[in-house]
């Protein structure tokens, strides 16, 4: 078989051979070179050989690995034939380079027969980051993708006070197919005191996937619940931040009722059927509780 031959320089300097791939070798895969070296190669010379990987037209390498960390000298000794130098891919690349630094008085040839890398189909959308933060305008959500393939749109979903019962609060168009990093921004103008957010990404073929969940606490809305009157004989009124979900508990922690503080309304809880004693109203978002007393019946 034919091979490309790389001759080590006999003076200071370096000799390099770079090979390009038709596709990107993804992170997490395996790549390698099939090489053969002359019989005068020893351990000290092996340490002067390096494999580097590159992406696109960048002059900076992605990874650099000394050959002596990837292959034993015995595999390159006389009579061993071709040897495979294999390495795990820590960063994606589409070019691999074999480099030999200047060796002063030494000179030898290395034949490179082939280079390979394991290729896996790219994810439809490669999400880099998804985050949220509280602002004066509401909860600012941002996310970015490293690449997208047949991406149709993103649905922003929110659940209040627990990571269940997500509902759609907005939608942004995807980038379709691109290998470039894409940035997205969305503002939830009406967040709850404690909100859970996630992205539902929809492909053009209808396939969907979900992002990790992001939790954002709005301190301005996290006012404690209040309950009055206490002692109570007929009803108690519960007040707090709009959107707060609560539960009424007895002294043994048994749940009697749940509800939400809604805009323009104050929840009322009927206590007439309860025996006299101490009861609690718990904010299910923060876990804090306030108590009230049901007056004993006369």
From TrEMBL:
Domain of life: Bacteria
Protein name per Swiss-Prot or TrEMBL: T9SS type A sorting domain-containing protein
Species, as recorded: Hymenobacter segetis
Annotated InterPro entries: Ig-like_fold
Origin organism lineage: Bacteria, Pseudomonadati, Bacteroidota, Cytophagia, Cytophagales
Gene3D superfamilies: Immunoglobulins
